Structures are given as C-alpha cells and as structure tokens.
Amino acid sequence: MMNIHGSYFSFTAAYSPFPLLDRWLNPYKNAKVVRIGKFPVTIEWTQRAAQQLARQTTPLIAEIQIYFSCVVKKRVLFHDTSKLETTTVDDKLAVCFRAVESNSCDPVEFASNFPVKNSFTSTAALKMHPKTLSIDFKHNEWVGEFAI
Fold first, then answer.
1. Are the C-beta atoms of 100 and 68 separated by less than 8 Å?
2. Is residue 114 domain-resident?
3. How big is the CA angle at 72 (ends 69 and 78), to the nearest 5 degrees?
4. Domains of the chain: total
5. Does the residue 15 lie in any domain?
6. In this model, does residue 87 exceed pLDDT 90?
7. E strand or H helix at 51, and its extent?
8. Where on the phi/psi map is residue 37: left (φ > 0), alpha (ψ -120 to 50), or beta?
9. Does residue 105 sit within a domain?
10. What are the backbone dihedrals phi and psi of residue 87, each rounded to the nearest 5 degrees, phi first?
C-alpha cells in the first residue's frame, strides 16, 4: 500500500487553514534583490529564518533547482558548502541556481533520491530563471520555495 500523505499528490495542505495562519503570523519580512547571472531575483525570508541565520557560523547556501525527470520539479536545497558558483545575499546567506537532468525516469528512484545526471546548459534552460525565493525555518528545518 502506497502512502501519499505529504507527497506530491497529497491534498491536505490545500484544505488546512494552518499553512495560511502560519504565513499570516510569520510573514516574509526580510527581503533583498540580488542578481543571479544577469537576472534579478528577490530573496525573502521570515523572522524565524533570520534568527536561525544569525546563529550560522558559515553562510547557508540555498540552491534553487529545476529538476527535469519524469516530471519537472522545483526544489530548493540547503547546503553548508557547495562547489557551485554562488551569489552572496549577505554574510549569512548565499544562493545559486541551476537546471538539472536526472539519471533516469524511474518513478521510484525519482520519488526517493532525485538522482542528478548533469546540469542543463542549453539555450532553453538558460532562459529559465527564478524571480523570487522564499526561505523559512520551520520544525528545525530549512524550507524554501521559488517562483519562475
């Protein structure tokens, strides 16, 4: 039996008032516009995230990723270190963006591991870029979402 609670096909968040209440109580009050490549991106974060960032001893790296596999998925990954080229937001936060291709289109592998084969550098992939990145720190975990 497959459990879809909390998965891509879950509807619980759409019918729950708690995410809306949380967003109202913890709005994205901090914001800065940076350039990733030649495109401006608005980075916004909550007060919870600002408090956690203040505790960081090294900059947190937020990787904005468009993942091409069986389906296209938008992901925000958080790292302490990265070999990718990053853009500094401030002394506690850096961001980077890349479009990646998966190793295969195996639904089970896609759902559990998100295997990355390589970065896309095609003309079409280079035209895609994020416009906003929203960062929060909930339940002792970094969370992020972005809009294209």
1. yes
2. yes
3. 95
4. 1
5. no
6. yes
7. helix 47-55
8. left
9. yes
10. -115, 130
The range of the structural domain enclosing residue 39 comes to 26-147
CA distance 71 to 146: 17
Please state, in angstroms and rounded to a whole number, the distance separating the CA atoms of residues 103 and 84. 19
Answer yes or no: is 61 within a domain.
Answer: yes
Question: Over pLDDT 90: what percentage of the chain?
Answer: 36
Secondary structure letter of residue 14 according to DSSP: H
E-strand spans in the chain? 30-36, 39-45, 60-68, 72-79, 87-90, 93-102, 116-119, 132-138, 141-147
Return the higher-pLDDT residue of 5 and 66: 66
34: tokens are: 């940076």
| Mean of pLDDT values over 142-146 | 92
